[in-house]
Amino acid sequence: MVIELPKIVLKDKAIEEMPNIIKDLGVNSIFCVFGKTTYDLVGNRILDVLKDYKLEKVYVDACDELTINKVTKKGQELKTNLIIGIGGGKNIDLAKAVSYQLNIPCISVPTIPSHDGIASNRSVVSKEESKYPVVGKLPIAIIADLEILSKAPARFFAAGCGDVIAKKTAVLDWKLARDERGEEYDDFFANLAYLTADLIIKNANVYEKNYKSSVELLMNCLITCGLLMAISKSSRPCSGSEHMFCHTIDKLNPKNKALHGEKVALGTYIMSYLHGINYEEIRDVLISYKLPITHEEINIPPEVLVEALFQTHEIRSDKRYTILRDGIKKEEARRILKELKVI
Fold this sequence. Notes:
By secondary structure, this protein is of the alpha/beta class. It folds into 2 domains: 7-149, Rossmann fold; 154-339, Dehydroquinate synthase-like, alpha domain (Up-down Bundle). Helix content is 52%, strand content 13%. 49% of the residues are buried.
């Protein structure tokens, strides 16, 4: 199977390039997926540059089964042949999921630099109080406007950095699975993922000197990681025990307000300790990016974090092999979190 890589436009005023990308697709009906905040931010601008096309817009506040089915049905009725996801995670995830259902192309237009889903072929779907991944359509283009992205709240930038730093422990988990379980492993994909983490780690002490350049670096790393998952046909290069820890927190405490990248960054700090690498360096980098490393900072109760570390090895149905292997006892989980001053 040949994977056609997306066209990537990463620069100031990237949104103005959208007509040039769309003109060769032979589309006539476009569905734009917004959130209310996103529409207030860039809606009029996007509708203006696409004024020569038949446009429909939908506002979403969740990427759940009900909304996916609703938007898919509307797309069928309108005979939509292109869907554009504009904004953050849920909008882009929904666009990818619906485009997969309709078998039409999608375009990703991120407005916050918070996670690598902007360029992957996976969507995270909510069901009641849980979340699970599904296959989505790989975007045919990623339109990343640096003017918009660099004005996003700094918390989203930090979360994006956290999601990239997480590749450090994700790759170590993958190597462990290779060494102890004989799992298939690819040096090229692993090394590239590891490189993105190192680039963000090295930028931690200087990112504020030229913030827009740092946002550009982060976006390049996030896009690279998203494409790695698509090309390798696995989330292994980018997601390990630290992501499983995040998903377990969401299962145990679904109403938590922490960002995905904040939770996986905390997981990376913990898992780097378990892997025996320089966890203090990871901690210092997270502090430099103003990412939360204590239960007070991330606003999640200590007992939830203890229980999450205790249960993480069971969160995936495929029993992904990681540094947690068959799990750790609850008292050991508590000891680790206290030693790391997380609780």
